[in-house]
Structure formats: structure tokens, C-alpha cells
């Protein structure tokens, strides 16, 4: 049976368009970028997320040969910015810097305006950062084991400060409570510096502060460093152990900042951006800039970062359930 010419022509045309469509991502990535790139940050200028975006934007712009515009869109703990980027065109020209709150909030809130795993594409885990558990010198503890003993002797009488409900350092304190079977009350403040100052003044007994905001108070003796929340010690305070080392094996709770894009961005563009960010983070200049802020550059691939997001979501959902934490 012979194929009639009209059908043969239709088959050829269909094959042509299929091949053309398959080639679009490759051709597009070869010309990317042809205009400035916008990085949306859901937090105010001067915060860790904003600083991370601005530090990485310089080498990224130089390598890509285009301007990088930082666009601060504050509100709702980053939700407004995240939802905005999730609904943006997946062309690689609108990117998003998020904090760990991007996986903490979904663990405690049902009415999310987007799904981080479905509506956003992981590009790169840029940096991680430990918080540091601190106490006022008037509190009769000098290490983590002392704290556990005191908290068990005075259930509900001690309190720790953090930078807002659902923040990474709030979760660090809740994880401490659950793993040690103690009840230390949480007290929210407006920012990372405020809760450290509250501990310095003695308004609260304990706090989980950022390394940068706490280091001078530790060196002056106004605060006592009990342990770092991350998995390794910090170059800023190498003598301070991790909380895991100090008496709670397996404890780990980190702040982190990362780059995402709308779902559907071409894979070559994802890989290109990831490789440039990893390369920048390994340079002496950028690594030093991050380290001065207490931030540790990461080298994960986009795929590894995607797996990290899934694990973090699971971890915080379990933590929120165990601690009865929810956002109404």
C-alpha cells in the first residue's frame, strides 16, 4: 500500500516541528543571556538573603556578560516574592533567592500560593550558615549539658529568642526542645540582631543568633557561646563546638540561601547558572566575602539541591507536627 503524497507531506512537516521543538532549549541556551537578569529577593536590603544575592550577582554578571538587577519584594516572609517568580515566564531572566523559610513555611501552612517543588526549579544552593546558641552570663550554665539539666529542673521557665515565628533559628530552638525532651519557651523578635540584643540586656536567658551579630558580644564576655547549630565549626569562632559535639549527637539545623527559577526553565540554562555559582563560590574573593558574613559557600549540583529541598521539607513537616507548630 502506497502512502499518498498529502499524508507523506504531513508526516514530514510533523517531524520537522518535533525536531525544531527539541532543539529550542539547546539553541536558546547558547544565546542566553541576551538581556539583563533580575534576581528577586523577598526580604529587605541588608539582610542575609539580600547580601547573598548581591555578593553572588557580581561574578555571575561578569561571567554572563549581562547586568544582574536585585529586586527586593518584601512581604509575608518571602511568600509574595516566591509566588511572583513561580508565575513568571520560565526563560531564565527572572530568578529568586530564598532562605530556609521557603521550606519551613509550607510545613506549617496549608494555604500556600505555590508549590516549591512543582512551581519552582532548583538552580543552586549558594550558602549555608549556622546559628549560635547563646546565654546571658547570669544564667548558671556554661555548656549544652548544663542547659539541658537546668531546663529539665525548671520546665517552661527558660526562654529563647529568635527572629520570627517559622524562622530558621526558631526551628533550631524547637528542634533542641524535641531532641532533649525539654520545654524552653520561644520569644519572637523582629530581626536577627534584635533577639541577640535582648539576650545581651538580659530580657531573655537564651537566644539563637547569627554569627556575625553575636561574635563581638561573645568576645567581650556579654554572651556565652554554647554551641553552633550546624554540622561543623565556624572559622569565625573555631573554639565553639557544634551542638552535636557538645552533647546532642545528630543535632543539625542550618540557615541557607539559594537560587531558584520558575518551573520549566531549560536544563542547559539551569546547569549553566549552577556551574557559574559554584565556581564563584570557590574563588578566594567571593569565599572571603561570604565567610565574613558567617556564610559557607556550597558546591551542590542542581539535582542535589533539588534532593536537599525535598529532605528539608520532610524534616520540617515532621518537626512542625511534633512541636504542634502551625500558621493559621
Notes on the protein architecture:
The chain contains 13 helices and ten strands. It has 328 residues and is α/β, with parallel strands linked by helices. The chain folds into two domains: 34-129 and 254-323, D-Maltodextrin-Binding Protein, domain 2, CATH 3.40.190.150; 130-246, Periplasmic binding protein-like II (D-Maltodextrin-Binding Protein, domain 2). Strands 1, 2, 3, 4, 5, 6, 7, 8, 9 and 10 form a ten-stranded mixed beta sheet that branches. Helix 7 links the parallel strand 5 and strand 6. Helix 2 crosses helix 11 and helix 4 crosses helix 13 (302-323). The chain starts with a helix and ends in a 5-residue tail after the last helix. The model is unreliable at 1-29 (pLDDT under 50).
Helix/strand class:
alpha/beta
CATH evolutionary superfamily of the largest domain: Bordetella uptake gene, domain 1
The end-to-end span amounts to 68 Å
Proper CATH architecture of the largest domain: 3-Layer(aba) Sandwich
Biggest sheet: strands, sense, closure? Answer: 10 strands, mixed
Question: What is the typical, i.e. mean, pLDDT?
Answer: 90
Q: How many runs of DSSP E, i.e. beta strands?
A: 10
The CATH topology name of the largest domain reads D-Maltodextrin-Binding Protein, domain 2
What's the layout of helices and strands?
Blueprint: H1 5-31, E1 37-41, H2 48-64, E2 68-72, H3 79-86, E3 94-99, H4 101-108, H5 116-119, E4 120-135, H6 144-153, E5 159-162, H7 168-180, E6 185-188, H8 192-200, E7 206-210, H9 211-219, E8 224-228, H10 243-246, E9 254-262, H11 267-282, H12 284-292, E10 296-297, H13 302-323
Parallel strand pairs: 1-2, 1-3, 5-6, 5-7
Antiparallel strand pairs: 3-9, 4-7, 4-8, 4-9, 4-10
Helix pairs in contact: 2-11, 4-13, 7-13
Amino acid at each position: 500500500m502506497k502512502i499518498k503524497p498529502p499524508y507523506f507531506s504531513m508526516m514530514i512537516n510533523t517531524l520537522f516541528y518535533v525536531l525544531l521543538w527539541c532543539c529550542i532549549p539547546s539553541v536558546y541556551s547558547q544565546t542566553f543571556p541576551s538581556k539583563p537578569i533580575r534576581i528577586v529577593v523577598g526580604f529587605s536590603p541588608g539582610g542575609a538573603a539580600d547580601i547573598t544575592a548581591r555578593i553572588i550577582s557580581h561574578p555571575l554578571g561578569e561571567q554572563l556578560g549581562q547586568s544582574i538587577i536585585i529586586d527586593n519584594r518584601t512581604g509575608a516572609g518571602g511568600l509574595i516574592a516566591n509566588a511572583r517568580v513561580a508565575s513568571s515566564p520560565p526563560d531564565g531572566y527572572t530568578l529568586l533567592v530564598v532562605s530556609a523559610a521557603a521550606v519551613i513555611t509550607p510545613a506549617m501552612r496549608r494555604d500556600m500560593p505555590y508549590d516549591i517543588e512543582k512551581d519552582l526549579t532548583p538552580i543552586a544552593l549558594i550558602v549555608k550558615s549556622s546559628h549560635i546558641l547563646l546565654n546571658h552570663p547570669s544564667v548558671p550554665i556554661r555548656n549544652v549539658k548544663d542547659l539541658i539539666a537546668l531546663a529539665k529542673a525548671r520546665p517552661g521557665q527558660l526562654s529563647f529568642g529568635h527572629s520570627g515565628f517559622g524562622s530558621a533559628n526558631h526551628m533550631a530552638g524547637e528542634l533542641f526542645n524535641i531532641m532533649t525532651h525539654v520545654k524552653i519557651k520561644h520569644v519572637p523578635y523582629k530581626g536577627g540582631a534584635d533577639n541577640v540584643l535582648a539576650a545581651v540586656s538580659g530580657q531573655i536567658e537564651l537566644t539563637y543568633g547569627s554569627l556575625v551579630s553575636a561574635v563581638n558580644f561573645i568576645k567581650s564576655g556579654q554572651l556565652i557561646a554554647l554551641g553552633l547549630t550546624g554540622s561543623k565549626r565556624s572559622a569565625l569562632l573555631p573554639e565553639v563546638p557544634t551542638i552535636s559535639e557538645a552533647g546532642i549527637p545528630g543535632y543539625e539545623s542550618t540557615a541557607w540561601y539559594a537560587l531558584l527559577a520558575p518551573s520549566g526553565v531549560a536544563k542547559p540554562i539551569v546547569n549553566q547558572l549552577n556551574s557559574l555559582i559554584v565556581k564563584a563560590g570557590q574563588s578566594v574573593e567571593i569565599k572571603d566575602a561570604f565567610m565574613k558574613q558567617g556564610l559557607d559557600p556550597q558546591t551542590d549540583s542542581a539535582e542535589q539541591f533539588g534532593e536537599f529541598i525535598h529532605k528539608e521539607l520532610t524534616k520540617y513537616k515532621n518537626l512542625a507536627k511534633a512541636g504542634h507548630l502551625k500558621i493559621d
